[in-house]
Specification:
The chain is α/β, with parallel strands linked by helices. The chain folds into two domains: about 150 residues, Rossmann fold (3-Layer(aba) Sandwich), CATH 3.40.50; about 110 residues, Rossmann fold (3-Layer(aba) Sandwich), CATH 3.40.50. Helix content is about 45%, strand content about 15%. It contains 13 helices and ten strands. A six-stranded parallel sheet has the order 4-3-1-2-9-10, with helices on both faces. A four-stranded parallel sheet has the order 6-5-7-8. Helix 9 crosses helix 11. The longest helix is centred in the first third of the chain and has 19 residues. The chain is globular and about 50 Å long. The structure holds D-glutamic acid. The site of D-glutamic acid (DGL) has 17 residues, from helix 4.
Length: about 270
């Protein structure tokens, strides 16, 4: 099949739940002609506290389903935990480009830092995997990286609580090592954390730049589509399809709020 035949195929994207919608939104804004299918594994969420091997198995299962059901031209792992533990496996499994959120996020952090003292926060699974530490170590730029896991942040976001005293107290405690390291830029290395940017920003102070992976991931996708000559034609009208392994009605309701756009049809896909 030639590259032009792939142009009309969708970009497939998955996350453990809703958080990856920040990436979906960035892709929809930057590449409106592209068709997108988004899978939120809300039935098995959260991933951040699960063993790495289990998250990898879930990522493989979702990828196989997306490939069978949608024949995408590109796969986006819009989840930091799954990117940290499964990206290499997925890249060797499927015959298409696979984009994670980890490398684009780190890349924008490197662009922003002036002192070279950078921070990354993420789920327990992401930070324990050592993936950010390994990727930063391979970079040509000399940086001093401080990482911290932030258990509890995701649960606050899922409850819709992003500004209470409780979440601020938790942020003070969990971000202490990052503050002590005097970083000048901090990557929100979990899809949910941009929703806590205000609370995190208050703890870190105005001199620390908060970086989220969503925009840089969308730029990376645009670059790849161009390089591989598989970009949708400008006149194409991209379709959007959302699929959830959990309750599709609540996915539509919460998803629309987070995406900032109506989500008319959410399909259900139940795991056996
Ligand atoms: N999507 C996950 C991540 O970016 C956060 C939510 C979860 O723990 O599943 O790491």
């Amino acid at each position: 099949m030639t590259s032009s035949d792939r142009r009309d195929h969708p970009i497939a994207m998955f996350d453990s739940g809703f958080g990856g919608l920040t990436v979906a939104r960035a892709v929809m804004d930057l590449l409106p002609s592209e068709s997108l299918v988004y899978f939120g594994d809300t039935d098995r969420y959260p991933y951040g506290s699960r063993p790495a091997g289990q998250v990898r198995d879930f990522a493989i299962e979702i990828t196989d389903w997306l490939v069978d059901a949608h024949d995408p031209k590109l796969l986006v792992v819009a989840c930091n935990t799954a990117s940290a533990v499964a990206l290499d496996h997925l890249r060797s499994r499927v015959d298409m480009p696979v984009v994670g959120v980890l490398e684009p996020g780190l890349h924008s952090l490197m662009k922003v830092t002036k002192t070279g003292r950078i921070g990354v926060i993420g789920t327990v699974g992401t930070i324990a995997s050592g993936a950010y530490q390994t990727a930063a170590g391979k970079s040509d730029i000399d940086v001093e990286l401080t990482c911290a896991a932030c258990p509890g942040f995701v649960e606050f976001v899922e409850r819709g609580d992003t500004e209470s005293d409780q979440v601020k107290v938790l942020a003070q405690r969990l971000l202490a090592p990052i503050r002590d390291a005097a970083v000048d830029s901090l990557l929100l290395g979990c899809t949910h954390y941009p929703f806590l940017a205000r609370a995190i920003g208050e703890v870190m102070g105005p001199d620390v730049v908060l970086v989220s992976s969503a925009d840089e991931t969308a730029f990376e996708i645009a670059r790849l589509l161009d390089d591989l000559d598989i970009k949708a034609t400008a006149e194409a009208r991209g379709s959007r399809e959302f699929v959830s392994s959990g309750d599709s009605a609540s996915f539509a309701e919460i998803g629309a709020r987070l995406l900032g756009l109506p989500m008319n049809h959410v399909r259900s896909h139940k795991w056996n």
